[in-house]
Write a structure and sequence with these properties.
homodimer, 425 residues, alpha/beta, Molybdenum Cofactor Biosythetic Enzyme, Chain A, Alpha-Beta Plaits, Maf protein, 3 domains, six-stranded mixed β-sheet, 15 helices, 40% helix, Putative competence-damage inducible protein (chains A, B), CinA (chains A, B)
């Protein structure tokens, strides 16, 4: 099955808006085993849309049109397709009622042309819009399927995820079930990961594995088609086992939950509180910890001690430690973690010190970072890292590695045997 | 002049990469007064590229091809265009030398097929690549101009900005000069801004004004074509004056410099140090302050006091203040700012307290935020804000408004008369 994507909107052609919808749906279609042949973006002009439709029909069977379903004058996608396919637009009662209710609840005045948004192509199946007004739809005509979707990303994405995918599976993958699972990794690059598991995952015919990376986390999504749900899950379990056999120490969770959230939930579940003394990260670790709703249950406060003086005066780091080992040292990271934990009376104390860059500090090159983890009644754990030469990347990696140290500590996992982490300080 | 953009790459069709290049160049072309008619994305297949070329030639004169200039087997853009236009590929000596030097300096082995990247279409003008190997080019053939650009964004963007634009201006806008200026605003939404200045900016024929917003900042870019540089600048000055007449209190700078950087540079220039006591923002304000290279000159440290206990114990907020007014109060923000300034011995102290949400706190609704600014020997300034119901948006807006308060304080500007800022506490 081949798909063609047509995005409609002047704001895309002037570069005001980046077309992230096209990437989003392409990714979803690819995971269903549907090939995307081309993506086209045109303005809201009848003749341009029709020219694209003609071209796309030559190449693919599934034609996806995005945008132009709103109530404005230049929203002409439905009308254009209606006259092009010689198919009437008819009122979809359920959507009309939803629009009326929506305006009643929000005390907004309903514009006269708003009924337009409740029109669907005769014979099409409507796709629900849980986050907006415009209804989507899918229509079979001849050998082609036409899909119409709204342009705003916050309406587009849920409609694709929750309704379109299901409809496509029902129509084209109907004799089979479709299952997928996303595994999340930290501490390994996408390229390294591909190199280490590539051979294991490329030999199944009914499996598509998509690997992506975003903000230092790498995801492996296993997409399987099979005759039964049980069979699909067996495939997924088998592949997951092969992947984790090689990469278990980097694996931290499933789905859309990022490392920060995994660690915050672990702290919540175990009723542990955390604090930090931050130098190079300047508050970014605590900002991550407090980003979620229940921050008050795991965090009471912490300190940013950026200068040498304040490390000594406010955080009570021994002047002898600083004089003998420097602030970029294992010893300083240990004291920072321990003192923060005492001052803020927390279960876990994190100390972050290092050279963010671009310059060196105390003869240490940018990217040299020490992270200490103190827990009541136990020896303080400390690790040395060598990251990158870029300041902001170093700060980000320091925060994420500190979070990962917390995860390893809580779950009692062995420290990662990672080239970047040098345990012989 | 009409332009067509063809992006080439399988990673775009699988949704692995979002096509931000298309938006970037469309924005640049629009600001030059060149209309983009369509954007197409195809895979690295000769017949697909040729089909797109044919279609694009029907619609536009300027055909821009992005991607497929590398040394891999599926990099076929140059070769395809060469055979399609019946134009030879010839070796560009300067690029070849640059590739050899590049590999010598980096101690990398030069791959055999790397000379491929030094080939250009006969008769084309090469476009320099300052951040990579592949050379770009522009070729006139019949009534069309063909532009070839590399796909990686960090090579693509500088090439467009520094070389392609100049070449296009020289070729098509050559009798006129082209000037532009970007103004940056904070504290106003894009929609409000358009409403307030729309009439003033839409009546000049040789002026294109593009308005955008990103991360709570709004930019107004004034693009002018004129006979002389002086005339262009006069236009820009005139429009800027009209815009600033209405929006001066929101204006904070020019070009690509964001509010955070403007404030950090102001602190550096005036040799002022800053500290903060943060509650709802959890360290995000200090993280912003320390994001730049010279952080050590303006910041020594600060404290995150998230819980009521730690506000009292670590930050010495009077228990009476908390009992009488609560932690979400003008009085608490004032004490936080003042105590942080004293503890960390800084010129300016910022206190941030409020309700990030989603729940209420002390009977105050989410989005209620108090920001205090203390300066030695002066009365502490405090402002109350009502932002949003979303936690992360509230945290972000609190940080940016605190930065904006610092800017207003340093430049001795009147406090903004903003609906969102309620001075009658």
């Amino acid at each position: 099955m081949k798909a063609e994507i047509i995005s409609i909107g002047t704001e895309l052609l002037t570069g005001k808006v980046v077309n992230s919808n096209a990437a989003f749906i392409s990714n979803e279609l690819t995971s269903l085993g549907i090939d995307v042949c081309s993506q086209v973006t045109v303005g809201s002009y009848t003749q341009d849309i029709i020219a694209s439709l003609k071209k796309s029909e030559e190449r693919g069977e599934l034609i996806i049109l995005i945008g132009g379903l709103g109530p404005s004058e230049d929203d002409i996608t439905k009308q254009t397709l209606s006259s092009y396919l010689e198919t009437d637009l008819i009122l979809h009662k359920e959507t009309e009622e939803r629009i009326i209710t929506y305006h009643k609840n929000s005390e907004l005045k309903m514009p006269e042309n708003n009924q337009l948004q409740a029109l669907i192509l005769a014979g099409s199946t409507p796709l629900k819009n849980d986050t907006g007004i415009a209804v989507g739809m899918i229509l079979t005509k001849g050998s082609h399927q036409y899909v119409l979707l709204p342009g705003p990303a916050d309406e587009f994405r849920p409609m694709v995820k929750n309704y379109l995918k299901e409809e496509l599976i029902k129509r084209f993958i109907d004799t089979q079930v479709f299952e997928s699972r996303k595994l999340r990794f930290f501490g390994i690059t996408e390229a390294e990961l591909v190199e280490r598991i590539g051979e294991d995952i490329n030999k199944y015919e009914q499996v598509v594995v998509t690997i992506n990376s975003c903000e230092e986390e790498v995801t492996v999504k296993i997409n399987v088609r099979a005759d039964t749900r049980k069979e699909a899950e067996n495939y997924i379990d088998e592949i997951q086992m092969k992947v984790l056999n090689k990469l278990n120490s980097y694996f931290f969770g499933y789905g859309e939950k990022k490392l920060t959230d995994v660690v915050k939930d672990l702290l919540l579940e175990r009723s542990l509180t955390i604090t930090a003394a931050e130098s190079l990260t300047g508050g970014a670790f605590m900002s991550a910890i407090t980003s979620g709703e229940s921050a008050g249950s795991i965090f009471e406060g912490g300190v940013v001690a950026y200068s040498e003086d304040k490390k000594h005066q406010v955080l009570n780091i021994n002047q002898e430690t600083i004089d003998e080992f420097g602030v970029v040292s294992k010893q300083c990271a240990v004291e920072m973690a321990e003192n923060a934990r005492r001052i803020f009376d927390a279960d876990i104390g994190i100390g972050l010190t290092g050279v963010a860059g671009p310059g060196s500090l105390e003869g240490q090159i940018p990217g040299t970072v020490f992270i200490g983890l103190s827990y009541k009644g136990e020896d303080t754990n400390v690790q040395r890292f060598h990251f990158d030469y870029r300041r902001n990347k170093n700060r980000k990696l320091a925060v994420l590695n500190a979070l990962d140290m917390v995860r390893h500590f809580i779950l009692n996992l062995p420290t990662k045997n990672d080239a970047k982490c040098d345990k012989n300080l």
